[in-house]
Amino acid sequence: MEIKPEIAERIFALEEKFKNSGQDLASYLDGLLYDRYLTYWDYLSIDTLLSLQKTLTHFPDEKIFISYHQISELYFKLIIHEQQQIIDAKNPDVDFLIEKYNRLNRYFRILTDSFDVMIKGMDKEQFLKFRMSLLPASGFQSAQFRMIEMYATPLENLVSFEIRDQFSERNNLEDLYENIYWKKGGIDLKTGEKTLTLKQFEKRYTARFLRIATTYKGETLFHKYRDLPDSIKNNKLLKEALRNFDVNVNINWPLMHMGAAYRYLNKDDKSIAATGGTNWKEFLPPGFQRNSFFPYLWKKEELDNWGKEWVNHMFNTEKKNY
Ligand code: HEM
């Protein structure tokens, strides 16, 4: 049997490759011979993926609730993947950075724009029932959401707004972490105790969060941009992309998410208790949290009015829309 020159050429190349790493080409060719052909469903682990939407109740719309949360977590994973590439890049050029921030912004835009799967896509009566089987679990316990924040900016920028000016990079990480904004959200206002939702979250993730804070101290997106040479840092498109990222994560998504809370948890102007037990009307509005990943990119009055325009809009249109 004649071997075609283009096949022979590849066999020589393969022989070279395996010889260089002390491997035997013939054994690998056997492997190829016995291998099954790849299928779509195996490559994507479709059976596993589609087995993960395990509802706890018989209400059909709980499937939507689980699936959309999982979709969001997958996007969070892609977002972290992009953040890590920015952090790891040595001497990145401006095109690389713009491309990465554009990807981040696209992911957040998709998440924000698709939130009406939650806001309009579930029956309220069903939601108010099946949620009782989910206590005390809450999106508050999304570790990836917290990681996105921690990769983006140092802990001192995430300290609860009312006391943020008392903290700086000179504080130790444990102190900063203890005063992070979401911990305050997880305090039961009546008893002053941490909610079970917060306690469980801390037990599961504190060590990991502190490890991330330690590993990425001085290396977050905030630092990576701040330490760029002026020629790159002053690029208008890059600056705009970072500002958009700040607004997407800290205003647009939270506001859309708050729309869901209003739609499902606001009744006759009274709040229904959320599964995570926060005083959510005070905890969720971006204008109250005032988180910004890149405060140096905003004027003082922009920071003073952080998310306010949108929040006012929200409160005024609340009755009409949600
Ligand atoms: C009907 C849909 C939803 C409602 C009613 C809702 C409601 C709430 C409420 C009330 C909180 C405050 C914590 C608490 O007391 O439980 C919260 C926090 C949170 N939820 Fe949701 N949520 C919904 C969908 C989602 C989805 C799809 C995600 C995506 C993963 C998500 C992620 C989060 C995150 C990350 C927080 C913490 C926010 C922060 O710390 O600023 N939520 N949610």
Description:
With 322 residues, this protein is mainly alpha-helical. It folds into 2 domains: 5-35, no CATH class; 53-321, Methane Monooxygenase Hydroxylase, Chain G, domain 1 (Up-down Bundle), CATH 1.20.58. 62% of the residues lie in helices and 1% in strands. The chain is built from 19 helices and 2 strands. It has helices at 5-20, 25-34, 40-43, 46-49, 62-88, 94-113, 116-119, 124-130, 143-152, 173-178, 181-185, 196-215, 221-226, 230-233, 236-265, 280-283, 286-289, 300-304, 308-321, and strands at 266-267, 270-271. It has a two-stranded antiparallel sheet. Helix 6 (94-113) packs parallel to helix 15 and helix 9 (143-152) packs parallel to helix 12. The radius of gyration is 24 Å and the shape is globular. Mean pLDDT is 93; it is low at 317-322. The structure holds protoporphyrin IX containing FE. Residues 68-69, 72, 118, 138-140, 142, 145, 182, 185, 254, 257, 260-261, 264-265, 274-278, 280, 283-284 line the site of protoporphyrin IX containing FE (HEM).
Write a concise keyword list for the protein shown above:
1% strand, binds protoporphyrin IX containing FE, Methane Monooxygenase Hydroxylase, Chain G, domain 1, mainly alpha, 62% helix, 322 residues
Summarize the structure.
With 322 residues, the chain is mostly helical.
**Secondary-structure element order, N to C:** HHHHHHHHHHHHHHHEEHHHH
CATH topology of the largest domain: Methane Monooxygenase Hydroxylase, Chain G, domain 1
- Overall CATH class of the largest domain: Mainly Alpha
Low-confidence residue ranges: 317-322
Structural class by SSE content:
mainly alpha
Number of strands: 2
Strands of the widest sheet, in order across it, are 1-2
Q: Any idea what the CATH architecture of the largest domain is?
A: Up-down Bundle
Bound small molecules, deduplicated: protoporphyrin IX containing FE
Q: Largest sheet at a glance?
A: 2 strands, antiparallel
From the spread of the alpha carbons, the general shape counts as globular
DSSP strand (E) fraction? Answer: under 5%
Distance between the termini: 74 Å
Tell me, rounded to a whole number, the average pLDDT.
93
So how many helices? 19
Number of domains: 2
- What is the rounded Rg? 24 Å
How helix-rich are the residues, as a percent range? 55-70%
